[in-house]
Design a protein that fits this description.
Layout lengths: L1 E10 L10 H16 L3 E8 L7 E10 L1
């Protein structure tokens, strides 16, 4: 049986070029590395669009054998 765990990362982005910078990417990497150290494996990601003031959210789902 697989147990799942999801995290939401809020990522601000620039309204005109919709890009994220290295600092924001490092937050995603840090979460993935932290979960991997806990035995979780990345299952899927999804981007939830936001407005210009709030950026977007990234839903990151991990799984591991229970």
């Amino acid at each position: 049986m697989i147990e799942y765990k999801s995290d939401i990362l809020k990522i601000p982005y620039k309204a005109f070029d919709e890009s994220i910078d290295e600092t924001q990417i490092s937050r995603i990497d840090a979460l993935a590395n932290q979960r991997a150290a806990e035995g979780w494996k990345l299952i899927t990601t999804a981007v939830v669009a936001g407005d210009d003031a709030n950026g977007c959210s990234i839903l990151v789902t991990f799984g591991k054998e229970k």
